[in-house]
Design brief:
The complex is a heterodimer. By secondary structure, chain A is mainly alpha-helical. Chain A folds into 2 domains: 2-55, no CATH class; 75-306, MetI-like fold (Orthogonal Bundle). In chain A, 73% of the residues lie in helices and 0% in strands. In chain A, helix 4 (72-78) crosses helix 15 (278-306) and helix 12 packs antiparallel against helix 15 (278-306). In chain A, 28% of the residues are buried. By secondary structure, chain B is α/β, with parallel strands linked by helices. The N and C termini of chain B lie far apart (71 Å). The chains are: A mainly alpha, B alpha/beta. Chains A and B meet through helix 3 and helix 14 of A and helix 1, helix 3 and helix 17 of B.
Chain lengths: 311, 426
């Protein structure tokens, strides 16, 4: 600390000599060590981000040169009825996925936290979908939901129910995609919850037991407050993830039937790589960026109120 | 010591960069190769395995006279093809030679992706006069030629003869002979041969060939666009009737599969299937039932099968334009067109009139081919593409999704299409 203050004082007078010594100095190695990360961030994160803001102000059509058109894409966005439908679909997806995913993960974690023999098998089984590629997972489920020869409808046929066209019925398609997405990622949140549950101090349970708390009271007054940091983390991750959903929609429904499952990222992809309207697609992407930022800030600022023992 | 580590670090970083950069520069050095130098060409298409087999043989033949040209064939599924070419064009990685379908040609030509091949006309041995002049229209612009057709198939109806016989129904060809083969009869026949799990008809391949339905609208005097392609005209009495027919067949008669059901013609569960004649390449492999082809049904104004058209384009910026021209010339020579005519209706008169086109193993009877393909060529209509075809296609596809999901009535669906497409056409 002290030496830093000194060098700062010395700098103006001995600037030249100081620069010569820069190579080999501690600061040099410091920069060197962070340089892969910094260069990587600048090249693959910040540059594309800034460039996409510029692109959103042009009419770039992939072939040919982009022309600057100011805020025209954003005006078009506001007046685009499809955009509002797509935005609504994205929010419906998030509103469906987040509670299902978090509650199911927590329930599974509570169920599987006991160290019973063979419990590892169940934990692994629930975690495996997380490691599977989303495309593989979605293709399999697409067949499971098949109308004529799908697994689910065949099971239903056995008990005498004529199964619906799950992925082609506008009332059911979104629900099907939400369930598939929840099952895919519930394992990750479950593992996080398991880790959190096992870190809860056992003494607290004993103390609360002596105070006469029953199982439910123990859960609401001891377990839940102690794992709120993890609940917060999973909540943020799941909300952000649900806003960025694409793979399962692309594979299972292509945004259909009609546009009942078309979400923001799918709409961005469609405009960019199907209709080659890169300027407009960039504008939508920027809106998505702002929406995710907004949700994250809200949760971040609300965390002080309900997250226990935040460090 | 510390300094040494730092220097090693930097050297490694530099080395990594130089390696990464030098890789790119090397590939360009072959550009002005002499005739004998090894040259690689890429040929892109959307053909199936049977098509590729024919091309493998054709390329081997080509190598007998051009041993220095190595041709790599790449197949991209049809629904992704136009998108793929556009992306490759933006990345300057276009193939040298490739298939171009009728609906892609305007976009490719507008953006200057295709090279001028007018010089072929001067080659006496090539004999350009042999081509039907109408088949060249698609690729002509300002008296220059930007592609050569290889396939001009009219849409035909493939039908499962066994299903008709078992149901005691007259087959489409019997109706044609009796002069009763119209769209009302088609709908009735489709209903009559449908049963549990078997559908009378299917208009769609991969659920996106809605264009097959245009034959119905045309037969009644309607059209998709007006003459100069400035207005969407499918929102008409005829258009509504077309969508109503599909709606009836799907949801009332259950004679057409519903969206999401994967039933193909070769599974034996489809009575009548609409596709261009080129589908014969797949139908020839059918062993489980007897099939045949028939002309499309008639409407009040007559019979108008859609004419598909596909050609070869020479993509601009090819590193070896001369060699690519040689390959294209060979593919479209009489020999090349004869080879591909096992599947494709040839645009060369000499090949179309030859026996080789009709007499293929497992082909439908010669008189069926004559009736449904050769005699229908004059009635067939080309659905011209549009520079913005992708957007138009997406909007129409969206409308059909609404029909499949029973979200809206045909009148409202066509109105929705009109509202989306008219601004694109302006």
């Amino acid at each position: 600390m002290e030496s830093n203050v000194q060098t700062a004082k010395v700098l103006p007078t001995k600037g030249k000599k100081r620069r010569k010594k820069f190579i080999g100095s501690e600061a040099f190695y410091g920069y060197l060590f962070v340089s892969p990360m910094v260069i990587g961030f600048l090249l693959v994160m910040l540059f594309p981000l800034v460039y996409s803001i510029y692109m959103s102000l042009t009419d770039w059509q992939l072939l040919g040169d982009p022309n600057f058109i100011g805020s025209e894409n954003y005006q078009r966005l506001v007046n685009d009825p499809d955009f509002w439908v797509v935005l609504k679909n994205t929010l419906i997806f998030a509103a469906g996925l987040v509670p299902i995913n978090i509650l199911m993960a927590l329930l599974l974690a509570l169920l599987l936290q006991k160290n019973l023999p063979g419990i590892g098998f169940f934990r692994t089984a629930i975690f495996i979908p997380v490691m599977t590629s989303i495309v593989v997972w979605s293709i399999i489920w697409k067949y499971m939901f098949g109308t004529e020869e799908g697994f689910i409808n065949q099971i239903l046929a056995v008990i005498g129910i004529d199964g619906p066209a799950w992925l082609y019925d506008p009332d059911l398609a979104m629900g099907a995609v939400i369930v598939v997405s929840a099952l895919k990622n519930v394992g990750l949140n479950m593992v996080l919850f398991l880790a959190a549950l096992q870190q809860v101090d056992k003494n607290l349970y004993e103390a609360s037991y002596l105070d006469g708390a029953n199982r439910l009271k123990q859960f609401t007054n001891v377990t839940l407050p102690m794992i709120t940091p993890t609940v917060f983390l999973t909540l943020i991750l799941t909300v952000i993830g649900s806003m960025k959903v694409f793979g399962q929609i692309y594979v299972m429904t292509n945004g259909g039937p009609g546009n009942t499952t078309k979400v923001l990222v799918y709409y961005i992809w469609e405009n960019a790589f199907k209709l080659f309207d890169f300027g407009y697609a960039s504008a939508i992407a920027l809106v998505l960026f702002v929406i995710i930022l907004f949700f994250t800030i809200i949760q971040w600022s609300a965390r002080k109120r309900w997250v226990f023992h935040e460090e | 010591m510390k300094r040494k580590i730092g220097l090693i670090f930097l050297t490694l970083l530099m080395a990594a960069f130089t390696v990464a950069c030098s890789n790119n520069t090397e590939t360009g050095s072959k550009e002005n190769g002499s005739k004998d130098e090894e040259v690689e060409l890429t040929f892109m298409m959307w053909g199936n395995e049977a098509h590729q087999e024919v091309y493998n043989k054709l390329i081997a033949k080509f190598n007998e006279t051009h041993p220095n040209i190595k041709v790599t064939m790449e197949s991209v599924p049809f629904p992704d093809y136009q998108q793929k070419i556009t992306v490759l064009a933006a990345g300057r990685e276009l193939p040298d030679v490739g298939w171009v379908a009728e609906r892609m040609a305007p976009q490719f030509m507008e953006n200057g992706l295709l090279a001028n091949v007018s010089s072929f006309k001067e080659d006496k041995d090539y004999n350009m006069e042999d081509f039907f002049p109408s088949t060249l229209d698609l690729f002509e612009q300002d008296n220059k030629l930007y592609g050569i057709p290889f396939s001009t198939p009219p849409m035909v109806m493939f039908y499962n003869k066994d299903l008709f016989v078992n149901a005691g129904e007259k087959t489409p060809n019997e109706h044609v002979a009796a002069g009763t083969w119209n769209w009302e009869q088609f709908e009735e026949s489709a209903k009559a041969i449908s049963s549990n799990g078997v559908y009378g008809a299917n208009f769609f391949r991969d659920w996106n060939t809605w264009i097959a339905l245009l034959s119905h609208t045309w037969a009644n005097g309607g059209d998709l666009f007006n003459k100069d392609q400035s207005k969407f005209t499918w929102n008409s009495v005829q258009g509504v009737e077309t969508l109503n027919m599909l709606d009836r067949m799907m949801f009332k008669d259950s004679s057409h599969p519903k969206a999401g059901e994967q039933v193909s013609f070769d599974s034996g569960k489809i009575g009548m299937f609409f596709d261009v004649y080129s589908y014969v390449s797949a139908a020839r492999n059918v062993k489980d039932f007897e099939w045949d082809i028939a002309p499309l049904p008639e409407g009040t104004e007559g019979r108008f099968p859609m004419l598909g058209q596909a050609g070869y384009g020479l993509f601009k910026d090819s590193k070896h334009p001369e060699e690519a021209k040689e390959l294209l010339k060979f593919f479209t020579s009489q020999e090349g067109i004869t080879a591909t005519s096992t599947f494709f209706v040839p645009p060369r008169e000499s090949v179309l009139s030859s026996d080789a086109f009709v007499n293929q193993p497992n082909n439908p009877p010669a008189e069926s081919i004559k009736r449904a393909v050769i005699d229908e060529m004059d009635n067939a209509r080309l659905q011209a593409g549009h520079v913005e075809w992708q957007k138009i296609d997406t909007a129409i596809q969206f409308g059909f999704d609404e029909l499949f999901g029973q979200l809206k009535k045909p009148e409202d669906i066509l109105k929705g299409m009109e509202e989306k497409i008219n601004p694109i056409l302006k």
